[in-house]
Amino acid sequence: MMLVAAGLAVPATAAAAGGHARFSALVFSRTAAFRHDSIPAGVAAIRQLGARNHFRVDATEDAAAFTDRNLARYDVVVFLSTTGDVLDDTQQGAFERYIRAGGGYAGIHAASDTEYDWAWYGGLVGAYFRDHPGAVNDQFQVATVNVLDRTTAATRPLPRRWQREEEWYNFRTNPRGTVRVLAEVDERTYDPRGYSVPEGSPGMGPHHPISWCHPYDGGRSFYTAMGHKAEYFSDPLLLAHILGGLRMAAGVERFGCGRPN
Fold first, then answer.
1. What's the DSSP call for residue 66?
2. Is the pTM of the predicted complex or chain greater than 0.85?
3. 24-28 and 76-80 as β-strands: parallel, antiparallel, unpaired?
4. What confidence score (pLDDT) does residue 142 get?
5. What angle do CA 53, 231, 42 make, to 5 degrees?
6. How far apart are CA 36 and CA 24, in angstroms?
7. Across the 261 residues of the chain, what is the mean pLDDT of every consecutive 10-residue run?
8. DSSP helix/strand/coil, 52
């Protein structure tokens, strides 16, 4: 829960109940470009995580939810596969004030394919989407994720080497050095060439971040590029990764993201 002070969102201390810290999450999934058909599954999965782990989840595609007063009700705002220009200038201002007052942000998958003309948001998410390898008969490549930092709530449940199918994103810039990279995908285990030029754009190289976190402008940011398909939201490991990231961004678990790597 967050409180309103002087018109700004100020985090309140989360209360513990039954061994779980309570918090509130707003899931925002508006799209103005490509729309992932996994969004309903993602919303449902986060609602189930909330029910099982004692936190409140509201979901909306209405950008009018981005006001000072409404955002003050939430400890973390989740951008779930948003795309394109989803907030106007007034709504952007409210979200910036929310983060500056100590709010949390969690971006999932296409959250990095959002608001390319809003430089502040690009800093918040950490990097913008560039492209990804294609699929064959709706099947993406299986690759190995190397979990680099297993000390956080988002990574403790994960194996050090995690094999999974995904739409593996390449980013316009590598955020390493400005964020704490939690996991990277091993380009030796798949073909990382994206579609943005005819011959296929290169991947990200030997250190290809796929999940990260960092403090930003007074708030907390967590991002994972995983979560393209609806079926992925039935994967217990992905759900554990997302749950831990939400708890970190909400401020009810140790954040531990202040040192870039």
1. -
2. yes
3. parallel
4. 98
5. 45
6. 24
7. 38 41 94 98 98 97 98 98 98 98 98 98 98 94 96 97 98 97 98 91 95 98 98 98 98 94 92
8. helix
Question: What CA–CA distance (Å, rounded) separates 52 from 210?
Answer: 27
Backbone angles phi, psi at 21, to 5 degrees: -85, 130
**DSSP SS3 for 83:** strand
- Residue 252 makes CB contacts below 8 A (sequence gap 6+) with 14, 21, 22, 23, 75
Amino acid symbol at 33: A
Q: Which residue has the tokens 């708030």?
A: 219
Fill in the amino acid letter for 214: H
Q: Domain 2-250, what fold?
A: Rossmann fold (3.40.50)
Consecutive H or E run containing 47: helix 39-53
Contact 242, 208 (CB under 8 A): no
* Pair of tokens at residue 113: 């394919």
Residue-range domain boundaries for the chain:
2-250
